[in-house]
C-alpha cells in the first residue's frame, strides 16, 4: 500500500484523473437515482379473499376462512396468519418470513387454495393477491355541484388522463360507489298478476342478453348471427316482458316494479370544502422521480381548470389534495442548506487551525468522496430520499476525520522541518496509513448489521448503510491517493508578501492549539494518568448514570421519529349497525370542529394570512367518517406551531364522540404508532369479550392513556328463522323460505352490465321502504311449490338473538386486539413495563385459557431489537478480530473499542439536555460517532506504540502521543460537531425528525473527545500496570510502579523503558532493555 500511495503522490495526472472520474461518475450516478419521499417497502405475504353475498360472519368463518387457513397452515416459509370474517366476504392474510422467495411462496398459496374443493356453491372464486405497499404520493380532488354520475364520469376521465402522464400509470379513482340497477318489485303487484320473484328474475335473464348464433358461410360472404337485446337503461329493463296471457295481456317489468338506474347505496357522501367530490389517488410507480412527476401533474391540473381547454365543465374543478413532493423538496432544501453551512464551518475551522491550503483540499476531498460514493449508490439500489440524504450528514464527520488526519500529519511533517513537498506528502500519509484504513473498516463494520436485518425496516436502514459504506470507500481512496498529490507542493509557510500579516495571524491562531496542548492539556493528562484508576472509575460512573437515565425513561425511546405532514387524517369508526343519520351527525360534528378551528386560529394567530386549514375533504360511508385536512406549510405558520399542536387543537374542537369505536387524528408521514396494542386469543368470543374488558379497565387507570378500545364488533341483533312443526306437509322447506326471504331483502342478482369498463349489477328485490320496516317480514308471503301463497308466519318462527358483525382470527383462532393511545414521549414503554410487572401475572391467573401477545408495531420492534442485537454482537466480534490482528494484541482492541459504549453514553446525555427522545436513527448517529472516536483512538494508540518502539516508556509515550495528536483528535471532533451544528440549531418543523440522529452524533462526539484524550490514556496505563503485576507474579520480574522515572519533558527517557512482553496486559513485544 505504501508503494501505491507514493506512486499516486508523484503522479499528479493520475490523482487528478481519479478525482475527475469520481465527479463525473457522481453526476452520472445522481441522474440514475430515483427520487422518492421514502423507499418502497417490500412486504412478503399474500391475501386470499372470497365473496359470499348475504352470508353471515359465522358462516364465512366456518365454511371459508377456516378451510383456507387449514390449507395454507403448513406452507414452507409461513410466519403468521390473520383473518377477518365479515358479512358477505372473508379475507385471510398470509405473512411469509422475510427471507423467503416471494414468487414461490405466492405460487404455493395459489396451489393450496386451488385444491380446496368444498367451498360453498354460492361463494365466488377465491382471489389471491400479492402484498404490495405503494403509498400514494399525490392526491387530487375533482369537485363541483353536479350529480353523482356526472362527477364519477369526470373522475374517470381525470384518472385516465393522469394514467397517460409519466408517473401516473397506477392512478386510481376513490370516493365513489359502484353503480347498480335496482329493480324494486311490489309484492302487491306480484300477487295481483300471480307471478313470483323468480319469474321476474328469469324474465330479465332470458330477455336481456347479447348472444352469438354462429356464422352463415355463403358464397357471397360470411354473415354473423347475433342477438343483441342487452338492456342498459331503466326504460329498456321496464319493457322486458314477464308474461303474456289472454286475461292480463302483456305483463312487463315496469308493471310490477320501479326501476332505478343508480348506485349500490345512497348512504354515501364525499365532499371537498363542502362540494360533492371524487378523488384520484396516484400511487408510486416502480420507478419514482417525484419532482418530475408532480410537476407534470400540476401542469395538468392547471390545464384542466381552464375552461378553454374543454377538459372539465366550468362547474367542476380539480384541486391538489396533497403533494408529497412539497415535503420532499422542503426537507431536501433543509438538508442541503445545512450540509453547505456545515461544510463552510468545517472549512473555516480548518483554515483557522491548520493552513488554508490544507483546508481547501480537505474540503475538496469531502466533495470528491461523496461524488464517488454517489456513483456507486444506484448499483446498491439506493434512491434519493429523506433517509439517504441525511445519511450524507451522518457520514460527513468520518470523512472529514480521515482527511484531517492525513492532511494534519503532512502539515506537521512540513512544519517540523523534517521534510517538505513531495516527501512530506508521502511520509505523512504513510505514517497514518494503518489507523486511517482500520478506522474506516471498523466504521463500515459498525454500520453493516443494519444492512442485514430482516423485515420491512431493512428497506430504511439499508438506504443509510449503503450511503455510509460507499462514501467511506471513496474517502479512503481520496485521502490516500488524491489528497497527498494535492498537498505534495506544499512547503513551509512563509509570511512575506501582501498577505503576510493575515497569514501570520492565522498561524498564531493555529499555534494556539499547540500552546493549549502543551500548557493546559498536558498537565491535565498527567493528572489523569497519575490518578488513572480514579479517571477510569469516573468515566464508568458516567456510563452507569447514562444507562440509568435511559433505563428509567428519563430519555424516552421512540422507535421511529415523527415526520410531520402538512395534512391531518381523521378517521372515526362507528359500531356496526349505526344508522346512517347518526353517521351524518358525526360528519357534521367533524365539519363544525374544522370551522371552529379556523375561526379560533384567526383570533389566536392574527398574523397568519388566510386560514390555518386550507381545505378539507370528508367522506361518510358505511360506519366510518374519514377526512383529509390540509394545513398551511410550516414556513407560513407562527414559530413553534407544529402539526401536532394543530391536530390537538382540532381534536378538542371536534369534541367527544361517545358512541365511536375508534377515533384517530394522524398528522405524520410515517404513521408511527404511539400507543399500546395487545392481542388476546381464544376460540370463544364471549370469553374474549370478558378478557378484553379487564384489559381495557386496567388501561383506563393510566393517566396518559386515552381512546381505549378493542376491535371486537359490537353485538347486533339478528332474526333467526326456524320452521314450525308440520310446515313440511305444505311442501315447503327451510331452504325455500330462506331463499325467498333472501330474494326479498338482499335481492337476487340477475345479470351484470358492462359499462365504462366496469360491471354494473342488476338486482331484483323489495322496495327500500319495505326492507327498512320490521313489520314487512311478518307480512311477507311465501310461495309453495304448487303456486299457493301463504303467510310466512304460518310456516316459520322468528327469534331475536345477539349476532356478530365481524370475526377476527390470529393464527387460526379467534382473536381480539385491545388498544390505547398514549400521550407523551416514552409513555408506551412505561405502560408496557408496568403492565408486565403488575398486571399480566394476575391476568394469566384469571384467564389461564386466553393466550396473550403484543400486536402491531411493538411486536415488530421486539423482533427487530432481538435481531439487531445479535448482529451487533457479531460486528463487535469482527471488529475485535480485525484490530487484534492489526495491532498484534489481545487487549489493545478493547481499549480502542471503548468508543462504542461511551459514544452511547454521550448520546444519552445530549438527548437528555436537548429534551429529545432516542429513536432508531439515534443508533446511526452513535455508530458514526463511534467511527470518529475509534479513528481518534487508533491515531493515538498507533502513535504511542511507535514511540514505545522507539524506546520511550509508557507514560512518556502516552504524554507524547496525547500532546502530539491533540490537534488532529480535537479537529476531527470539532469539525464533526460543527458540521452538524446548523441542524442541531435548526428550529423548523422539517428538522425535528432529524434531531434524534444529529443530537446523538454531536453529543457522542463531544463526550467521546474526553474519552480519547483522558480515559483511553488512563486505561492504557492501567493495562501496563496490570501487565507488570502479571510479570512480577508469574515471571518473577521486579515490580516497578508505572511512571516512576517520568520527567515530564517531551524527550525519550531510557530509564522509563517499560517493556511489555507477551504476558504484558497490552500484549506488545518488549523493546530491548
Automatic annotation (TrEMBL):
TM ranges: none
A cellular-component GO term for this protein: plasma membrane
InterPro entries associated with the record: AcrB_DN_DC_subdom, Acrflvin-R
GO MF terms held by the record: xenobiotic transmembrane transporter activity
Gene3D superfamilies: Multidrug efflux transporter AcrB pore domain (3.30.70.1430), Multidrug efflux transporter AcrB pore domain like (3.30.70.1320), Multidrug efflux transporter AcrB TolC docking domain, DN and DC subdomains (3.30.2090.10), Multidrug efflux transporter AcrB transmembrane domain (1.20.1640.10)
Classification via PANTHER family: PTHR32063, RND SUPERFAMILY EFFLUX PUMP PERMEASE COMPONENT
Taxonomic lineage: Bacteria, Pseudomonadati, Pseudomonadota, Alphaproteobacteria, Hyphomonadales
Protein name listed in UniProt: RND transporter
SUPFAM superfamilies associated with the record: Multidrug efflux transporter AcrB pore domain, PN1, PN2, PC1 and PC2 subdomains, Multidrug efflux transporter AcrB TolC docking domain, DN and DC subdomains, Multidrug efflux transporter AcrB transmembrane domain
Naturally occurring in which organism (per UniProt): Hyphomonas pacifica
Amino acid at each position: 500500500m505504501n508503494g501505491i500511495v507514493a506512486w499516486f503522490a508523484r503522479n499528479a495526472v493520475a490523482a487528478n484523473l481519479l478525482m475527475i472520474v469520481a465527479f463525473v461518475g457522481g453526476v452520472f450516478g445522481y441522474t440514475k437515482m430515483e427520487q422518492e419521499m421514502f423507499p418502497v417497502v417490500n412486504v412478503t405475504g399474500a391475501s386470499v379473499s372470497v365473496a359470499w353475498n348475504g352470508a353471515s360472519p359465522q358462516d364465512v368463518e366456518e365454511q371459508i376462512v377456516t378451510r383456507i387457513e387449514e390449507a395454507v397452515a403448513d406452507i414452507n416459509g409461513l410466519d403468521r396468519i390473520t383473518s377477518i370474517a365479515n358479512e358477505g366476504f372473508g379475507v385471510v392474510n398470509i405473512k411469509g418470513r422475510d427471507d423467503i422467495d416471494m414468487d414461490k411462496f405466492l405460487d404455493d398459496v395459489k396451489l393450496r387454495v386451488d385444491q380446496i374443493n368444498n367451498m360453498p356453491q354460492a361463494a365466488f372464486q377465491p382471489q389471491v393477491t400479492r402484498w404490495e405497499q405503494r403509498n400514494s404520493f399525490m392526491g387530487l380532488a375533482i369537485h363541483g355541484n353536479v350529480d353523482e354520475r356526472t362527477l364519477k364520469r369526470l373522475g374517470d376521465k381525470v384518472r385516465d388522463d393522469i394514467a397517460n402522464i409519466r408517473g401516473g400509470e397506477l392512478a386510481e379513482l376513490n370516493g365513489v360507489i359502484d353503480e347498480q340497477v335496482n329493480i324494486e318489485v311490489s309484492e302487491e303487484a306480484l300477487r295481483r298478476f300471480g307471478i313470483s320473484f323468480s319469474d321476474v328474475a328469469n324474465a330479465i335473464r332470458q330477455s336481456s342478453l347479447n348472444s352469438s348464433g354462429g356464422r352463415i358461410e355463403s358464397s357471397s360472404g360470411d354473415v354473423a348471427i347475433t342477438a343483441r337485446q342487452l338492456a342498459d337503461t331503466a326504460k329498456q329493463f321496464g319493457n322486458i316482458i314477464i308474461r303474456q296471457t289472454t286475461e292480463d295481456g302483456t305483463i312487463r317489468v315496469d308493471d310490477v316494479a320501479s326501476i332505478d338506474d343508480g348506485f349500490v347505496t345512497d348512504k354515501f357522501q364525499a365532499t371537498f370544502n363542502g362540494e360533492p367530490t371524487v378523488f384520484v389517488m396516484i400511487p408510486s410507480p416502480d420507478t419514482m422521480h417525484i419532482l418530475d412527476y408532480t410537476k407534470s401533474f400540476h401542469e395538468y391540473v392547471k390545464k384542466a381548470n381552464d375552461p378553454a381547454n374543454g377538459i372539465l365543465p366550468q362547474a367542476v374543478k380539480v384541486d391538489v389534495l396533497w403533494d408529497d413532493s412539497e415535503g420532499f423538496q422542503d426537507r431536501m432544501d433543509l438538508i442541503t442548506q445545512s450540509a453547505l453551512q456545515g461544510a463552510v464551518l468545517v472549512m473555516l475551522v480548518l483554515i483557522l487551525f491548520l493552513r488554508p491550503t490544507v483546508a481547501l483540499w480537505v474540503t475538496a476531498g469531502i466533495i470528491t468522496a461523496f461524488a464517488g460514493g454517489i456513483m456507486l449508490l444506484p448499483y446498491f439500489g439506493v434512491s434519493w430520499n429523506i433517509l439517504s440524504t441525511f445519511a450524507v450528514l451522518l457520514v460527513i464527520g468520518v470523512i472529514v476525520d480521515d482527511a484531517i488526519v492525513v492532511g494534519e500529519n503532512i502539515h506537521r511533517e512540513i512544519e517540523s522541518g523534517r521534510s517538505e513537498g513531495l516527501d512530506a506528502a508521502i511520509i505523512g500519509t504513510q505514517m497514518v496509513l494503518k489507523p486511517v484504513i482500520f478506522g474506516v473498516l471498523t466504521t463500515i463494520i459498525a454500520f453493516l448489521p443494519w444492512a442485514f436485518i430482516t423485515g420491512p425496516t431493512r428497506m430504511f436502514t439499508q438506504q443509510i448503510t449503503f450511503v455510509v459504506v460507499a462514501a467511506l470507500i471513496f474517502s479512503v481512496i481520496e485521502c490516500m491517493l488524491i489528497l497527498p498529490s494535492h498537498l505534495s507542493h506544499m512547503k513551509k509557510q512563509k509570511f512575506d508578501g501582501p498577505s503576510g500579516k493575515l497569514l501570520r495571524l492565522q498561524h498564531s491562531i493555529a499555534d494556539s492549539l499547540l500552546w493549549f496542548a502543551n500548557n493546559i492539556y498536558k498537565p491535565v493528562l498527567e493528572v489523569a494518568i497519575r490518578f488513572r484508576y480514579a479517571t477510569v472509575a469516573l468515566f464508568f460512573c458516567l456510563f452507569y448514570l447514562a444507562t440509568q437515565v435511559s433505563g428509567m425513561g428519563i430519555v424516552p425511546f421512540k422507535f421511529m421519529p415523527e415526520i410531520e405532514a402538512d395534512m391531518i387524517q381523521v378517521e372515526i369508526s362507528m359500531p356496526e349497525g349505526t344508522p346512517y343519520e347518526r353517521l351524518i351527525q358525526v360528519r357534521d360534528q367533524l365539519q363544525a370542529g374544522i370551522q371552529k378551528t379556523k375561526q379560533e386560529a384567526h383570533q389566536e394567530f392574527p398574523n397568519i394570512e388566510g386560514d390555518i386549514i386550507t381545505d378539507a375533504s370528508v367522506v361518510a360511508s358505511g360506519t366510518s367518517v374519514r377526512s383529509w385536512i390540509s394545513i398551511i406549510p410550516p414556513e407560513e405558520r407562527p414559530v413553534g406551531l407544529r402539526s401536532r399542536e394543530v391536530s390537538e387543537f382540532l381534536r378538542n374542537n371536534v369534541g367527544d364522540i361517545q358512541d365511536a369505536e375508534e377515533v384517530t387524528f394522524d398528522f405524520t408521514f410515517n404513521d408511527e404508532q404511539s400507543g399500546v396494542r395487545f392481542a388476546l386469543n381464544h376460540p370463544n368470543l364471549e370469553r374474549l369479550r370478558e378478557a378484553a374488558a379487564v384489559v381495557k379497565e386496567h388501561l383506563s387507570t393510566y393517566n396518559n392513556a386515552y381512546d381505549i378500545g378493542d376491535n371486537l364488533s359490537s353485538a347486533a341483533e339478528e332474526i333467526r328463522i326456524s320452521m314450525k312443526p308440520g310446515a313440511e306437509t305444505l311442501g315447503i322447506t327451510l331452504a325455500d323460505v330462506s331463499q325467498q326471504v333472501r330474494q326479498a331483502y338482499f335481492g337476487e342478482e340477475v345479470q351484470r352490465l358492462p359499462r365504462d369498463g366496469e360491471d354494473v349489477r342488476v338486482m331484483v328485490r323489495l322496495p327500500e321502504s319495505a326492507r327498512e320496516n320490521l313489520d314487512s317480514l311478518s307480512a311477507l308471503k311465501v310461495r309453495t311449490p304448487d303456486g299457493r301463497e301463504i303467510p310466512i308466519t304460518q310456516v316459520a318462527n322468528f327469534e331475536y338473538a345477539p349476532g356478530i358483525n365481524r370475526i377476527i382470527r390470529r393464527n387460526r383462532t379467534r382473536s381480539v386486539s385491545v388498544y390505547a393511545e398514549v400521550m407523551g414521549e416514552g409513555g408506551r414503554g412505561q405502560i408496557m413495563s408496568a403492565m408486565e410487572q403488575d398486571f399480566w401475572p394476575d391476568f394469566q391467573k384469571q384467564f389461564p385459557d386466553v393466550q396473550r401477545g403484543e400486536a402491531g408495531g411493538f411486536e415488530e420492534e421486539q423482533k427487530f431489537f432481538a435481531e439487531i442485537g445479535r448482529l451487533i454482537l457479531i460486528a463487535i466480534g469482527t471488529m475485535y478480530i480485525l484490530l487484534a490482528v492489526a495491532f498484534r494484541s489481545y487487549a489493545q482492541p478493547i481499549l480502542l473499542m471503548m468508543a462504542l459504549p461511551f459514544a452511547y453514553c454521550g448520546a444519552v446525555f445530549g438527548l437528555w439536555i436537548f429534551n429529545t427522545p432516542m429513536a432508531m436513527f439515534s443508533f446511526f448517529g452513535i455508530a458514526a460517532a463511534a467511527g470518529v472516536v475509534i479513528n481518534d483512538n487508533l491515531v493515538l494508540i498507533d502513535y504511542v506504540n511507535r514511540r514505545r518502539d522507539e524506546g520511550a516508556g509508557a507514560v512518556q509515550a502516552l504524554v507524547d502521543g496525547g500532546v502530539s495528536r491533540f490537534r488532529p483528535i480535537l479537529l476531527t471532533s470539532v469539525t464533526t460537531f460543527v458540521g452538524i451544528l446548523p441542524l442541531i440549531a435548526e428550529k423548523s418543523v422539517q428538522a425535528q425528525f432529524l434531531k434524534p440522529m444529529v443530537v446523538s452524533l454531536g453529543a457522542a462526539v463531544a463526550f467521546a473527545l474526553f474519552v480519547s484524550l483522558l480515559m483511553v490514556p488512563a486505561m492504557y496505563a492501567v493495562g501496563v500496570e496490570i501487565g507488570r503485576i502479571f510479570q512480577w507474579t508469574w515471571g518473577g520480574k521486579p515490580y516497578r510502579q508505572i511512571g516512576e522515572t517520568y520527567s515530564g519533558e517531551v524527550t525519550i527517557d531510557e530509564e522509563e523503558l517499560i517493556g511489555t512482553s507477551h504476558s504484558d496486559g497490552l500484549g506488545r513485544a518488549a523493546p530491548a532493555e
